Amino acid sequence: MPGRLRAAYESRLADGALTADPAQTAAVDALSAVEEVLATAKPAGLFRKAEAARGAYLWGPVGRGKSMLMDLFFAVAPMTPKRRIHFYAFMADVHRRVGIWRGGDAGARRAMFGQTRGDDPIPPLADLIATEARLLCFDEFQVTDVADAMILGRLFEALLARGVTVVATSNRPPDDLYRDGINRQLVLPFIALLKDRLDIVPVMGALDYRRERLRGARTWFSPIDPDNALQFDTLWRDLLGTDVEAGVTLEVLGRQEHWPRAAGGLLRAHFASLCVHALGPEDYIAIAARFHTVFVEGVPKLGPEKRNEAKRFAILIDTLYEARARTVVLAAGEPETLYPAGDQAFEFERTVSRLREMRAAGWGEPIIPSLHGEGKSL
User: Fold this and answer.
1) Exposed, middle or buried: residue 332 (CB in 10 Å: 0-12, 13-18, 19+)?
2) I need a surface site. Which of 1, 4, 218, 288 has the fewest CB within 10 A?
3) What is the rounded CA–CA span in Å between residue 82 and residue 87?
4) pTM (2 decimals)?
């Protein structure tokens, strides 16, 4: 008798919600193995420590169904408490809590951790996380920050020792995490731990499901009228599929920017939030690093007095262009009509050119990462 995950997957194949994909078979097998161990796991007792099941790490290009499989697994996983979270948000919370331990007084420590003694924040932090979730599911697993690299190995070793099971999705294999980063040797023990305690499963199907939904679809909608707004929204919901707009908070230079209409690698945001609000290049870099597809709505025509907004929009598009992010826009007019006059108009011509290029059918073709850090376009 198949487990609940396999039954749910096969049911979706049978009703046509999913298309059979051999590349997903190994991932279903690995997640089903985790489900089976969790179903028979014995709870911790007075003389018995909780034990972590062998986890799974699914990696491959965007749009191959990793997050969908994670959704199915998380929904049926026989473990409580459990938590699914984007890895970026998890690490932001980790650093916040470490800051409270290191900088807070005894009262602040007790309020957060229920304990106060010691200088090392890792044991109390691991204790706290283990009470919140015996199963941690991470989406978009990545290591891009030296501060993360310094803490990950010890933290995950402590979590596994406390019986926390880890499942993750990523666009990169473990050996490519933090590749070429400063002091990369700090993350090598963590990579070794991942490879030792999690099944590493490539999900490398030739079909990019989100790209298939975008293939042949318009990615520039103008003018802003009910018909274009409806088509823009329909495309968003089609790409969203079964994902939930859970929202994402990005921390940049000590500031936190919350994006409520986000799910997995998808972001939908209004021009006012992106370009009227005083964001800078670092914010746009964080967005481009976090999301593979960005929907921008409500882009107006800008007069000379809107030079700051035009400049921010140009920086946003430049950043998404360099990241090869897929970009869908609902705007008041065609690119060349958005900022025709003003002291930034000459520079804006490059933005117009890039917007036109980003509308081409092959734009944002995904790169398959290899075990050696190289890649090839599909």
Assistant:
1) middle
2) 1
3) 15
4) 0.64
248 φ, ψ (degrees, to nearest 5): -140, 140
d(Cα 247, Cα 261) in Å, to the nearest integer? 5
What six digits make up the tokens of 140? 């978009």
Report how far apart, in Å, the C-alpha atoms of 54 and of each of 140, 169, 196 are.
20, 15, 9
Contacts of residue 202, defined as CB under 8 A and 6 or more positions apart, other chains included, come to 26, 59, 60, 173
51: phi then psi, degrees, rounded to nearest 5: -115, 135
Domain 217-358 fold? Rossmann fold (3.40.50)
Residue 46: the pLDDT is 52
Strand pairing partners for 299? 331
CATH topology for 4-202 is Rossmann fold (3.40.50)
User: Torsion over CA of 95, 100, 103 and 107, rounded to 10 degrees?
Assistant: -170
Looking at the DSSP bridge assignments, the partners of residue 59 are 170, 202
Provide the token pair at 370: 């290899």
Find the angle CA(148)-CA(149)-CA(153) to the nearest 5 degrees: 105
Q: Which structure tokens are listed for 142? A: 């990545």
For residue 85, what are the β-bridge partners? 138
Tens-digit pLDDT profile for residues 267-320: 999 999 999 998 988 899 889 888 889 999 999 999 999 999 999 999 999 999
List the domain boundaries for the chain.
4-202, 217-358
C-alpha 373 chain-centroid distance: 20
Q: What is the pLDDT of residues 219-239, one digit of tens each?
A: 999 999 999 999 999 999 988
